[in-house]
Amino acid sequence: MNLTNAQLEKEYIIKDICTDDEELNAFLFSLGCYSGEKITVVSHFRKSYVISIKDGRYNIDKNLAEAILI
Questions:
Q1: pTM for this one?
Q2: Cβ–Cβ contacts within 10 Å for residue 57, how many?
Q3: Three-state SS for 32?
Q4: 54, 61 contact by CB (below 8 A)
Q5: What are 6-33's pLDDT values in tens digits?
Q6: In 1-70, which residue ranges form alpha helices assigned H by DSSP?
Q7: Which residue from 11, 7, 1, 64 is spatially nearest to 39, judged by alpha carbons?
Q8: Domains in the chain and their CATH numbers?
Q9: Could you give the angle at the alpha carbon of 59 between the alpha carbons of 14 and 39, nearest 5°?
Q10: Which helix (H) or strand (E) holds 56?
């Protein structure tokens, strides 16, 4: 299941980042988004998601959300 299917305000564990794009991997890693880390979807709009990782909140687009497997 990827992040687009997550329930709001429920904490999940990231299982994998599914992308071949090294820049995307590096960007997500810089946010603290990697396997084993806890992640929560705070809110969801049409094509963007507000996520909470560690103590930070970030706005990501649908393509990034689809790459994060929970």
A1: 0.88
A2: 12
A3: coil
A4: no
A5: 999 999 999 999 988 899 888 889 888 9
A6: 22-30, 62-67
A7: 11
A8: 3-69 (2.30.30.90)
A9: 20
A10: strand 56-61
